[in-house]
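FW: tagging you since you asked about this chain on Friday. Here's the raw sequence from the shared folder, copied in full. Didn't touch anything.
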Amino acid sequence: MPEVPILMPQLGESIAEAKVVRLLVSQGDRVVSDQEVIEVETNKATMGVTTLCSGVISRVMAEEEVSYAVGTILGYLEVTEEEIIRTGVGDHLSRPKNSDESASDTSAASDSNVHFATDSEYVEPTAIEPHVQGLPVPAGNSAQYISPRLRARMNELGLQGADISAIAGSGAGGRVTIEDLEYFLEYISEWPSTKASPMRMAVADAMRRSWTRPLATVGLPVYIDRLLDYRKQQMPKPSLTLYVLKAFTTALQENPESAGFLIGDKIVHPRAYDIGVAVQVDDGVLVPVIRNVNEKSIADLLDEYVALVDKARTRRVTSDLTQGGIATVTNFGTFGLKWGTPIPLPNETLILGMGAGTKQLIWSEEVESFLPVTEMDLVLTFDHRVVDGGGAGMLLNRVAELLQRPQDL
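HL: got it, structure written out here
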């Protein structure tokens, strides 16, 4: 019988490889069309490799915890002639399984324009090294001079400038030499370490790029008792994040320059108000994007938000769901944190953080007494090339004002 290869698919526009996390089938297993047979991990999410048609797994050539390039053959599926005709997978076929079947299979398949490869056309899967690499050392001042010789050695090791900031240089002016690097690598070679996951490396790469800009952070305490009372009346109760997301979007729509990004001498304004929501996962953060938030009510957003968060937590967010955002909302208050300095993604100018709500006593002139209130800090980190402190302050105040009228969101 002919065989259909199981290929590493193109899992995203900028994704060149993926790591096999789990093999879901074994040789001899019978599978159906579009069945998930291999679980793979990219730097964005965990996804499944599926079959083109029904058949029997004749070979599994991929190995778990190994990365393969897009297009690599991970295994083979033995199929019938009827299945070939039904699904039209002739262009994907390999050779007949043995020489006895070769003549009859070739004859039967001729009407389907099937090409059977020869033995020499088989390609064993080749493991590759993930292209995002780096040394997990503390980040610091990476603006120091790096000699061509040192740069070449760093390129061999897959190191970035920030990766060598923990090294005290012995060269002129504190410059790190190649000898310093080799000594440091030898020094830490016996330290306990763990392999950074593709997710962790993707976060590290994004933060390196984000930190090339002048970022600043401002904060504002907001009383949220009115919002909490209104939320209690809703069924089901939307997350506080949704109210902040909607208020933030409204404020940005009123002042689109704040969400623009600087390219040369132009500030490019948002084309659509697509806002990301940061979701903590086991080894990093995923930011699925909710499209056209300005056109939707809280009720409209609820189901979409819950579905996206669930996909993120189960690592089922595809690349199309994480691209194109103009800003992000992150709720670090869920970890009991009252304040923080979140960092916007490299392609975004703003990120709005939410702290944990706490009870405070404030003086009321009206009743001449202290009254308990629930206070939450809103924290805005921004690209200072695009937004100044005053503009950021006005944006935060507008968000706070909108949160006092949750019924209008």
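FW: The radius of gyration is 27 Å.
HL: agreed, and Confidence is low (pLDDT under 50) at residues 95-122, 132-143.
FW: great, closing this out.
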